[in-house]
Amino acid sequence: MIQSILIANRGEIAIRIAQTAKRMGITTYAIRTAKEPEALYLSAADHVINFPNTDSTIPEFLDIESIVAIAKANGIEAIHPGYGYLSENALLADHCQQTGVIFIGPPANVIRAMGDKITAKEIAGKAGIPMPGGSNGAVSNVEAATQAAQKIGFPVIIKASAGGGGRGMRIVHKAKELPRLFNEASSEALRAFNDPSVFVEKYLVSPKHIEMQVVADAHGNIIHLGERECSVQRKHQKLIEEAPSPALTPALRAQMAEAAVNLAKAVNYQSLGTVEFLLDKDNKFYFMEMNTRIQVEHPVTEMITGVDLVELQIRIASGEKLPICQADVKQNGWAIECRINAEDVQSGFAPATGTIKGIRFPQGNHIRFDTGIARGSEVTPHFDSMMAKLIVHKASRKDAIKATMTALQQLHIKGVKTTIPFCKAVMDNKLFKSGNYNTSLIEEQMTDLVYREEDEEILATLLAISHYTREHEQVSSEMGSIDPWVLKKRLKSL
Amino acid sequence: MNIFSKNKDKKLIARVKSGKDLAFSVQNKQEFVHKRKTYNTLLIEELDGMTTLMVNNERIPVEIVSIKQNEYEIMVNGVSYFISVETPFSYERKKMLEKQQQKSGKEVIKAPIPGKVLEVMVQKDQAVNAGDALLVLEAMKMQNTICASRAGIVKNVTVTAGSVVSKDDVMVEIG
Q1: Given CB atoms, is A108 within the 8 Å cutoff of chain B?
Q2: Biotin carboxylation domain location, by residue (chain A) (predicted)?
Q3: Subunit contact B12:A475, Cβ cutoff 8 A
Q4: Quick check: B54 contacting A, CB < 8 Å?
Q5: Which CATH architecture group holds B95-174?
Q6: Which residues of A carry out catalysis?
Q7: Higher pLDDT pick, A45 / B108
Q8: Cα-based distances in Å from B90 to A478, B20, B94
Q9: What angle do CA A87, A441, B77 make, to 5 degrees?
Q10: pLDDT at residue A481 above 70?
Q11: Contact between chains at A360 and B20 (C-beta distance less than 8 A)
């Protein structure tokens, strides 16, 4: 078993990893950066190592050389990359292998194969997993793209082969838009990923986004831990997730799970991974991509299966056999996760910054709150806006939605604007409650993205009025002294 | 709304941006009446850093995000409310000005009363939104923030901090 772990990440996921590692008796090391030298995650680790001063302009948690050097210099056995940053970077896995550090994740060749979308599609296609129609492989010019698009019919989506995070991606509704959008996608891909290759795929209008959690050890054991429903998205960013998915029947779940496991087998997968699917309105599912890391939304799976996914990652990286088999995995009840982001929902989800002046957490045995912030934390523009995750687990979906709403009402953060009122609006939304929603929920179906509690407006005005009255004592003594009749006259003469 | 009630109560009107205008009569520094309901308020800074507004013994976590003169941004349950607190006089004046501005396509900000400009917040060619503060005018011993009632581009600023203006002097033009 691994004895020490360097956590090459920050925020709530660094704390999350440290918690499991500590429970397993593993020594944890966190990395302190000059951008947030007093961040909360540093208090979760046994040791804190200052990131060395370098002339490099690479962000700290993307600096492969420095991170591996820290592990070597401190005799740390393994590196956990968390999500984002280097978690799907095959070069880190390579570098670890070359220097004798354990990378907690899949082998470099698996990361590479799944990271390149064209290769991933090829492997998935050979494994018999349903694919949306499209160009087989990259299209090198507008003519080839047009040909592929006409074969499958519009709308189509142009995607960067090396893509991720919505970059290098364009939806094309009409043939005449294609040349312009093709060039845009290709040049964006070149800038973002240093690789201009793009491919064309059938674009599904308003699908559901459902993903399957798989886990595989180095001894050929591969199981799945069921699905997560991630259709509450804004601009391809997930905001709320749930498990199980209200869209799946046991038969469909079994089919999708089988497809995910088959893909994992086809690439000789090892470690924790997620196969993302799109589900269309006819309940047909299509392979989208595979993520070779722990996901932000992993807690909903943990809540309903009772399995600690970080523990599995560490055990597999240590060379152990999976401690559970498929028959041990049961989905119990319903879990919902709300991402608490520092964003101003009323201003189009603009990133918000500030100092956390106070925070009140919801209470309950069914509540899990994974936070990267505490009172006094700075929310800066250096990092992404996700501050914390609220996860609620109940026996049924209906109860879970109700309990999530109550928990959101108990959660108060002072000092920075958050997505709490938005999450409440989703919990209150009819379509979400019905379970029959898809990725168009936020951008097309929801009329009000902010939930207002009863009497909120009068409470806000009372605060303004009482503050004003105290600050303007002198003025307030004059307020009633003008005769209304005189006042009207004075106004008219202005 | 009848803001000129017969009794001699002090009045304040809270104007909520894209919301309602709510009139309160001020009983004392803590007690306000709105639509015959009395609200007893107390603002508490808590030990855990939170701010609580007690209203008739109910505790509500709140936050004053910003205060500019009589303009407040207030958060209740994470929802922002932009509120300007007006006296009956400033309320009527704003209403009247808004009516005038709606008639013409371009907004000319004139001095509503003789006074002295304390601060100018905008400059020529700057884009402004409705409700943005343009300048602070001291008149009748009160500081008034003059706001844009419509979105547009600042075409001209004819005053600077310290300028003394007469009634109807043009201060800012928005096109």
Answers
A1: no
A2: 1-447
A3: no
A4: no
A5: Beta Barrel (2.40)
A6: 293
A7: A45
A8: 13, 17, 6
A9: 85
A10: no
A11: no
Q: Which of residues 437-456 of A touch B (CB under 8 A)?
A: 450-453, 456
Chain B CB within 8 Å of residue A328 CB: no
Distance CA A146, CA A12 (A): 44
Q: Which residue has the tokens 């009172």?
A: A375
Contacts of A227 (CB under 8 A, 6+ apart): A210, A211, A212, A213, A243, A244, A245, A248, A253, A256, A257
Closest-CA residue to B90 (of B41, B129, B141): B141
CATH of domain A208-445: 3.30.470.20
- Closest partner CB to A456 (pick from B14, B46, B76): B76
CATH number of this structure's domain B10-86: 3.30.700.30
- What pLDDT, in 10s, does the model give residues A449-458? 999 999 999 9
Task: List pLDDT tens digits, range A167-200.
Answer: 788 899 999 999 999 988 898 888 888 888 899 9
Which CATH number describes the domain made up of A133-202?
3.30.1490.20
Residue A393 confidence (pLDDT) above 60: yes
Tell me how far apart the 2 most distant CA atoms of chain A are, in Å: 91
A387: helix, strand or coil = strand
Helix (H) and strand (E) counts for chain B? 1, 16
- Could A459 and B60 be called an inter-chain contact, meaning their C-beta atoms sit closer than 8 Å? yes
Burial A84-120 (b: 16+ CB within 10 A, else e): bbbbbbbebbbbbeeeebbbbbbbbebbbbbbbbbeb
Q: Which of A442, A405, A379, A380 is nearest to A239 (CA)?
A: A442
Q: 3-class DSSP state for residue A276?
A: strand
Closest CA to A387 of A433, A362, A420, A410: A420
Where do the domains of chain A lie?
4-104, 133-202, 208-445, 456-492
Q: How confident is the model at residue A476 (pLDDT cuts 50, 70, 90)?
A: very low
Alpha-carbon span A308 to A318, nearest angstrom: 16
pLDDT tens, residue by residue, A105-162:
999 999 999 999 889 999 999 999 999 888 888 998 999 999 999 999 999 999 988 8
Chain B residues whose beta carbon lies within 8 Å of the beta carbon of residue A470: 29
Per the listing, tokens 């808590």 go with: B46
Contact of A270 with A285, CB cutoff 8 Å: no
* ipTM confidence: 0.88
B12, B55, B79 member nearest A468 (Cβ): B12
pLDDT for position B1: 45
Min Cα separation B32/chain A (Å): 8
pLDDT of B106 strictly over 80:
no
